[in-house]
Design brief:
The protein is of the alpha/beta class and 415 residues long. It has helices spanning 4-18, 23-39, 41-57, 62-68, 72-87, 126-137, 151-167, 183-189, 205-214, 237-249, 265-279, 304-307, 324-334, 347-356; strands spanning 95-100, 106-113, 116-121, 141-145, 175-177, 198-202, 227-231, 258-264, 285-288, 300-301, 315-321, 339-343, 361-364, 384-385, 393-394, 401-408. This is Gamma-glutamyl phosphate reductase.
């Protein structure tokens, strides 16, 4: 079993030196990491193929293989993410504001690193570089525990990143990898009090639930996405078709893919046959309520469980509602507070949806697939927070900082 306490001690030591690095040094190392990924593309692909071969032998379905699979284009996107992180302003040391109180003290609120960040995640290897780059830029040490499905991919990536740290004469313990994929080690990692300042899980509903229930260290809950698209009675139906096809089929295995279509009864008869035909080439299974199923040719009846399920597959639940009020109530009851969208030309309906839907990202006339730190301009993301404390939505650099108050005095004492 991995010596987690040793990893924690090494991470704490590394974090103290990371917090003092200049922005110039951090950006230089990030650029070196970018080049290292590009120069070692074949090494990464070879390691990833080992993981894919093992996953296929274990019967992992194709949508999950897509989460695991790396290509030259995906490695280039990872490299570009590192470049974007390097180009972003460094929040560490930044003082949001300063003010003078009645005692003449100058008080400022300054961004500082969290310290040691733990990441526990499943089969997407790009999380390794996303988490490592964001933590490094914000002066945090990170301990990575990826899923067993991506073991060789993650190991190869961390080896390359640590090589860059050594070449820059920095502590390689700033980015560490747990090489024991056992459940026992994962559970011990969740209880690494005294070493981890925060633990961030990133993956499916099962992983998130386990971490929240098991961890004794602070947790930022991320990831699970039961995302809805509501087609209003004032929607442009051609636009709605494009958005739904994109949100459901572009990458169905990711957390910002649409899982439920909610549609106003005034347009259901016209629109549902159209969207069924548009989704047919992708073999999307429609699970419809009693009203929706009457307008569809190949749908199966939806169960109560379908409304709350993150399918991560070519499956879409379909519900007809009588009003915007009913749509909002349904979505707020079943959603995971991730990403929700309305398709409408009615300004007042759009504003009500924006104001009343409880989610980290709420869209008007756009696909839920845009909820992504890279797309939002954060360079990368360490996860998409679906909770409300500390951070919410795609978590970039600022979300990996804490604050401390700095106070300048001139000999004041409190009377």
């Amino acid at each position: 079993m991995t010596n987690l306490q040793q990893l924690g001690q090494q991470a704490q030591t590394a974090a103290r030196s990371l917090a003092l690095l200049s922005t110039q040094t951090k950006n230089h190392v990030l650029q070196q990491m970018t080049q290292k990924l590009r120069q070692n593309q074949q090494m990464i692909l070879t390691a990833n193929q080992r993981d894919l071969d093992q996953a296929q032998a274990n019967g992992v379905k194709e949508t999950m293989l897509d989460r695991l699979r790396l290509t030259a284009e995906r490695i280039e996107a990872m490299a570009q993410g590192l470049e974007q992180v390097a180009a972003l302003p460094d929040p560490i040391g930044e003082v949001d504001k300063m003010w003078r109180n009645e005692d003449g003290l100058q008080i400022g609120k300054q961004h500082v690193p969290l310290g040691v960040v733990g990441m526990i995640y499943e089969s997407r290897p790009n999380v390794t570089t996303d988490a490592a780059s964001l933590c490094f830029k914000t002066g945090n040490a990170v301990i990575l525990r990826g899923g067993k499905e991506a073991f060789h991919s993650n190991q190869a990536l961390v080896t390359l990143l640590q090589d860059c740290l050594r070449e820059a004469e920095l502590d390689p313990a700033a980015i560490q990898f747990i090489d024991d994929p056992s459940r026992e080690t994962a559970q011990a990692f969740m209880r690494l009090n005294g070493y981890l300042d925060v633990l961030i899980p990133r993956g499916g509903a099962g992983l998130i639930k386990t971490v929240v229930a098991t961890a004794t260290v602070p947790v930022i809950e991320t990831g699970t996405g039961n995302c809805h698209i509501y087609v209003d009675d004032a929607a442009q139906l051609a636009m709605a078709t494009r958005i739904i096809v994109n949100a459901k089929t572009q990458r169905p295995s990711v957390c910002n893919a649409a899982e439920t279509l909610v549609i106003h009864e005034a347009v259901a008869a016209e629109f549902l046959p159209v969207i069924e035909a548009a989704l047919a080439p992708f073999n999307v299974e429609l699970r419809a309520d009693e009203r929706a199923i009457t307008y569809l040719q190949q749908a199966v009846p939806a169960t109560e469980a379908d409304w709350g399920t993150e399918f991560l597959d070519y499956i879409l639940a379909v519900k007809v509602v009588a009003s915007l009020d009913e749509a909002i109530a349904h979505i707020n009851h079943y959603n995971t507070k991730h990403s929700e969208a309305i398709i409408t030309d009615n300004y007042f309906h759009a504003q009500r949806f924006l104001n009343e839907i409880d989610a980290a990202a709420v869209y008007v006339n756009a696909s839920t697939r845009f909820t992504d730190g890279f797309v939002f301009g954060f360079g990368a993301e360490i996860g998409i927070s679906t909770q409300k404390l500390h951070a919410r939505g795609p978590m970039g650099l600022e979300a990996l900082t804490s604050t401390k108050y700095i106070i300048y005095g001139e000999g004041q004492i409190r009377q």
